[in-house]
Amino acid sequence: MHMHKFEKIWLIFGVGALLVFLSVLGVSAFYMGNQPPSCLATIDPEKVDETAPFTKPGLNKVEGKDWDYELVFVASAFAYNPGEVQVPKGSKVKVIATTKDVIHGFEVAGTNINMMLEPGFISEIVTTFDKAGEYLVLCNEYCGVGHHMMSSKIEVVE
Ligand code: CUA
């Protein structure tokens, strides 16, 4: 079968691009451990206050895990608990959040943290706060008349 030179070049380019893409995906998934959110962590939204770790909202030191602290947030119309929290700079933190009523957002301005909080589900992200300063946490899902007042503050301290 005769194949034109350009056709061959394109074929090699296409297969090459596919291999590069699959390699990047493979390294990301199996070597770096990146995976999409599972949405498997569920909770009874009416029993949030009695369910660990939401019995202790705020920053909690943990031992023997891949992260140093767990930063627990409970959202409800129209506030976050805690309304303000301090985090030591450079520490690895797992943010764990849920909502007691309707869907809320959890965006930390100036970072790539942006989660949706759905009743019945627990949203989590592991992150490191490398830069000291104040970070505004805000709700970016319209949740009712007090939506625009819903915020919290993470203060990253030295
Ligand atoms: Cu909570 Cu908008």
Q: Would you mind describing this structure in some detail?
A:
The protein is α+β, with helices and mostly antiparallel strands. The protein folds into two domains: 1-35; 41-157, Immunoglobulin-like (Sandwich), CATH 2.60.40.420. It contains one helix and ten strands. The strands form two sheets. Strands 1, 2, 3, 5 and 8 form a five-stranded mixed sheet that branches. Strands 4-10-9-6-7 form a five-stranded mixed sheet, with no helix packed on it. A hairpin with a 2-residue loop joins strand 2 (69-76) and strand 3 (79-81). The radius of gyration is 21 Å and the shape is elongated. Residues 78, 104, 139, 141-143, 147, 150 line the site of dinuclear copper ion.
Write the layout of secondary structure elements.
Layout: H1 5-31, E1 58-61, E2 69-76, E3 79-81, E4 85-88, E5 92-99, E6 104-108, E7 114-117, E8 123-128, E9 133-138, E10 151-157
Parallel strand pairs: 2-5, 4-10
Antiparallel strand pairs: 1-2, 2-3, 5-8, 6-7, 6-9, 9-10
Bound molecules: dinuclear copper ion.
Dinuclear copper ion binds near residues 104, 141, 142, 143 and 147.
Keywords: Copper, Metal-binding
GO molecular function, one term: copper ion binding
Protein name: Cytochrome aa3 subunit 2
Instruction: Identify the CATH homologous superfamily of the largest domain.
Output: Cupredoxins -  blue copper proteins
Instruction: Round the mean pLDDT to the nearest integer and report it.
Output: 92
CATH topology annotation of the largest domain? Immunoglobulin-like
- Structural class by sheet pairing and helices: alpha+beta
